[in-house]
Amino acid sequence: MRTTLDLDDALLSEAKRRAADKGTTLTAFVEHALAAALAGRDETGPRYRLAWKTHRGSAPPIVDVADRDHLIDVMEGRR
Description:
This protein is an all-alpha fold. It has helices at residues 9-22, 26-39, 68-75.
């Protein structure tokens, strides 16, 4: 299928250079790049599950985060 795209000059130049480096046509290079971008994540593999770690602790001191000096003093245990 034939179509027209409006591409950034630098992007097109880099695509042409890489296609030439690989010894392929610009069309084949763009088709491969587009197919890879559309392929997405492999859904057949196991999904990543984040394990939250929680710890009991005391409530943090009430600090006005806009007061940088006071915040640093509290974080460093000076107050």
